[in-house]
Specification:
alpha/beta; Rossmann fold; EgtD; 9 helices; single chain; binds N,N,N-trimethyl-histidine; SAM-dependent_MTases_sf; 3-stranded antiparallel beta sheet
Length: 322
């Protein structure tokens, strides 16, 4: 692999296209479409709008914790690390770390969106001219290896997985992700993990059922995306966003619910929806510290530090490879 060139490990190469996922997901019971397909250009813009909502405390709380604690995180990490980000998006939170970390050997943002990676890397190069930036275009959940960087092959690695993105993974997937991250980060590796904490269900409910309807628009954009990309015939008025906290499972569950019996054409096939029938689109798992340890330890990490906000809404955790 050539440093400096985005690696190609695209959806097409794994046969995991939007069309295939939709046809398979709507043919099985219960119906479900993987959450990653929510993030086309419009979905990403809607998610950015979610992050600004008064009810959606996650983003602003995590940014405050990172801003306040970046010097402590940098002190724990020590100088000369390669910084590896899983799902880098626009790298906004990364800048908080980059501004405190000493002598970063390289920054390796991993993201499924090549356009996002290119635009973000260009902006970062302008603002951090001395930093080696090595973007990797890949699905961070099953990345086989990191690029070999001749200039810093001996550098210890610091992983970064913010945003409570881990909440989208079910416990098996979360463990598989952490095991793979542990393998990629290697001996001496550490991981900064942002995770939303368990809390008052009313507050959780509001965060996923905002009064402006942005979260509903984000969910239903999945149907609009099928109309745009697969020539589907969804009537968006015929479906509704549904999100609630399941306390036994410790997660928000999100569905798209059919409001009436209806039939929809997708990529030349016909699908029937009963009134009230749901398509699962997302889980958002909430963690307490014991949940986090139950995941860290079997993955080969130990949680050595956790920072939270005064309201204990969100956690930033420091994991060290064991
Ligand atoms: C990006 C997975 C952290 O679960 O809070 C927000 C996604 N979905 N509102 C979350 C999401 C609806 C978000 N994560």
């Amino acid at each position: 692999m050539v440093p400096g060139l985005p690696l190609k490990n695209t959806q097409a190469s794994t046969g995991d296209t939007f069309e295939a996922a939709v046809l398979a997901g709507l043919s099985r019971r219960p119906r479900a479409i993987p959450a990653k397909f929510l993030y086309d250009a419009q979905g990403s813009a809607l998610f950015d709008a979610i992050c600004e909502l008064p009810e959606y405390y996650l983003t602003r709380t995590e940014i405050t914790i990172l801003r306040d604690r970046a010097p402590e995180i940098a002190a724990l990490a020590g100088p000369g690390r390669q910084l590896i980000e899983f799902g880098s998006g626009s790298s906004v939170k990364t800048r908080l770390l980059l501004d405190s970390l000493e002598a970063v050997a390289a920054y390796v943002p991993i993201d499924i969106s090549g356009e996002h990676l290119e635009a973000t890397s260009r902006r970062l190069r302008a603002d951090y001219p001395a930093l080696a930036i090595v973007p990797v275009c890949a699905d961070y959940t099953d990345l086989p290896m990191l690029p070999w960087l001749p200039g810093s092959s001996g550098a210890a690695k610091l992983g970064f997985f913010p945003g409570s993105t881990i909440g989208n993974l079910d416990p098996d997937e979360a463990l598989a992700f952490l095991r793979n991250a542990r393998r990629l980060l290697g001996p001496g590796g550490a991981l900064v993990l942002g995770a939303d904490l368990k809390k008052d269900p009313g507050m959780l409910h509001a965060a996923y059922n905002d009064s402006a309807g942005v979260t509903a628009a984000f969910s239903l954009n999945l149907l609009a995306r099928m109309n745009r990309e697969l020539g589907a015939s969804f009537d968006l008025e015929g479906f509704a966003h549904e999100a609630f906290y399941n306390p036994a499972a410790g997660r928000i569950e999100i569905y798209i619910r059919s409001l009436r019996p209806q039939s929809v054409r997708i990529a030349g096939q016909r699908f029937f929806f009963d009134a009230g029938e749901r398509v699962h689109t997302e889980y958002s798992y909430k963690y307490d510290l014991a949940d986090m340890d139950a995941l860290a330890v079997p993955a080969g990490f130990v949680r050595t530090q956790t920072w939270t906000d005064p309201g204990r809404l969100f956690s930033v955790n420091y994991f060290v490879a064991t």
